[in-house]
Amino acid sequence: QVQLVESGGGLAQAGGSLRLSCTASGIIFRLSALGWYRQAPGKQRELVASIATSGITNYADSVKGRFTIFRDNTKTTLYLQMNSLKPEDTAVYYCNFVPVRVAWGQGTQVTVSS
Fold it and tell me: How far is CA 16 from CA 39, 49, 68, 76, 111, in A?
Protein backbone atom coordinates (compact mmCIF):
# COMPACT_ATOMS: atom_id res chain seq x y z
CA GLN A 1 0.00 0.00 0.00
CA VAL A 2 1.41 3.36 -1.04
CA GLN A 3 1.72 5.90 1.72
CA LEU A 4 3.05 9.44 1.51
CA VAL A 5 3.17 11.35 4.78
CA GLU A 6 3.96 15.05 4.86
CA SER A 7 5.41 16.92 7.82
CA GLY A 8 7.36 20.02 8.73
CA GLY A 9 4.81 22.76 8.20
CA GLY A 10 4.10 25.48 10.68
CA LEU A 11 4.01 29.20 11.20
CA ALA A 12 6.77 31.39 9.81
CA GLN A 13 7.31 35.09 9.38
CA ALA A 14 7.78 36.61 5.97
CA GLY A 15 11.39 36.15 4.96
CA GLY A 16 11.74 33.06 7.09
CA SER A 17 12.37 29.44 6.20
CA LEU A 18 10.75 26.05 6.64
CA ARG A 19 11.69 22.57 5.49
CA LEU A 20 8.99 20.10 4.58
CA SER A 21 9.45 16.35 4.52
CA CYS A 22 7.51 13.59 2.79
CA THR A 23 8.20 10.06 3.86
CA ALA A 24 7.19 7.39 1.39
CA SER A 25 6.45 3.70 1.77
CA GLY A 26 5.06 1.06 -0.51
CA ILE A 27 6.78 2.46 -3.61
CA ILE A 28 10.08 2.05 -5.38
CA PHE A 29 11.13 5.49 -4.28
CA ARG A 30 14.22 5.87 -6.43
CA LEU A 31 12.20 5.10 -9.57
CA SER A 32 9.47 7.63 -8.83
CA ALA A 33 9.11 11.17 -10.13
CA LEU A 34 7.73 13.20 -7.24
CA GLY A 35 6.51 16.66 -6.54
CA TRP A 36 5.29 19.13 -3.96
CA TYR A 37 1.86 20.60 -4.52
CA ARG A 38 0.02 23.25 -2.56
CA GLN A 39 -3.52 24.45 -2.17
CA ALA A 40 -4.31 27.86 -0.79
CA PRO A 41 -7.78 28.73 0.52
CA GLY A 42 -10.18 29.25 -2.36
CA LYS A 43 -7.62 28.25 -4.98
CA GLN A 44 -6.89 25.16 -7.01
CA ARG A 45 -4.11 22.83 -6.03
CA GLU A 46 -0.92 23.58 -7.95
CA LEU A 47 2.40 21.88 -8.52
CA VAL A 48 5.18 24.03 -7.10
CA ALA A 49 8.22 21.79 -7.49
CA SER A 50 9.07 18.44 -9.00
CA ILE A 51 12.06 16.15 -9.15
CA ALA A 52 12.64 13.42 -11.67
CA THR A 53 14.34 10.11 -11.02
CA SER A 54 17.41 11.65 -12.66
CA GLY A 55 17.39 14.45 -10.12
CA ILE A 56 16.31 17.08 -12.61
CA THR A 57 14.11 19.65 -10.89
CA ASN A 58 11.44 22.06 -12.03
CA TYR A 59 9.77 24.90 -10.20
CA ALA A 60 6.74 27.09 -10.57
CA ASP A 61 7.72 30.65 -11.40
CA SER A 62 6.25 31.82 -8.11
CA VAL A 63 8.79 29.85 -6.06
CA LYS A 64 11.80 29.72 -8.36
CA GLY A 65 14.93 30.85 -6.58
CA ARG A 66 13.33 30.51 -3.15
CA PHE A 67 12.33 26.84 -2.87
CA THR A 68 14.52 23.80 -3.37
CA ILE A 69 13.22 20.27 -3.83
CA PHE A 70 15.52 17.36 -3.11
CA ARG A 71 15.29 13.71 -2.28
CA ASP A 72 17.13 11.14 -0.19
CA ASN A 73 16.59 7.77 -1.82
CA THR A 74 18.23 5.95 1.11
CA LYS A 75 15.63 7.39 3.47
CA THR A 76 12.78 7.30 0.91
CA THR A 77 12.11 10.92 1.83
CA LEU A 78 11.31 13.93 -0.31
CA TYR A 79 12.09 17.42 0.97
CA LEU A 80 11.14 20.99 0.17
CA GLN A 81 13.39 23.69 1.54
CA MET A 82 11.46 26.95 1.53
CA ASN A 83 13.39 30.19 2.00
CA SER A 84 12.38 33.83 1.74
CA LEU A 85 8.82 32.87 2.52
CA LYS A 86 6.01 35.20 1.52
CA PRO A 87 2.46 35.47 2.86
CA GLU A 88 1.24 34.16 -0.51
CA ASP A 89 3.05 30.89 0.20
CA THR A 90 0.43 30.17 2.84
CA ALA A 91 -1.24 26.90 1.86
CA VAL A 92 -1.55 23.24 2.65
CA TYR A 93 1.39 21.45 1.06
CA TYR A 94 1.17 17.92 -0.28
CA CYS A 95 3.54 15.49 -1.91
CA ASN A 96 2.54 13.08 -4.65
CA PHE A 97 3.79 11.51 -7.78
CA VAL A 98 4.22 13.54 -10.97
CA PRO A 99 1.76 13.09 -12.53
CA VAL A 100 -0.52 12.42 -9.59
CA ARG A 101 -1.15 8.71 -9.08
CA VAL A 102 -2.46 8.23 -5.58
CA ALA A 103 -5.00 9.78 -3.27
CA TRP A 104 -3.93 12.92 -1.49
CA GLY A 105 -2.66 12.67 2.06
CA GLN A 106 -3.47 15.09 4.84
CA GLY A 107 -0.77 17.51 3.81
CA THR A 108 1.03 19.93 6.07
CA GLN A 109 -0.12 23.48 6.75
CA VAL A 110 2.26 26.34 6.06
CA THR A 111 1.26 29.76 7.30
CA VAL A 112 3.38 32.81 6.58
CA SER A 113 2.66 36.00 8.46
CA SER A 114 3.56 39.43 7.15
Answer: 20, 19, 14, 27, 11
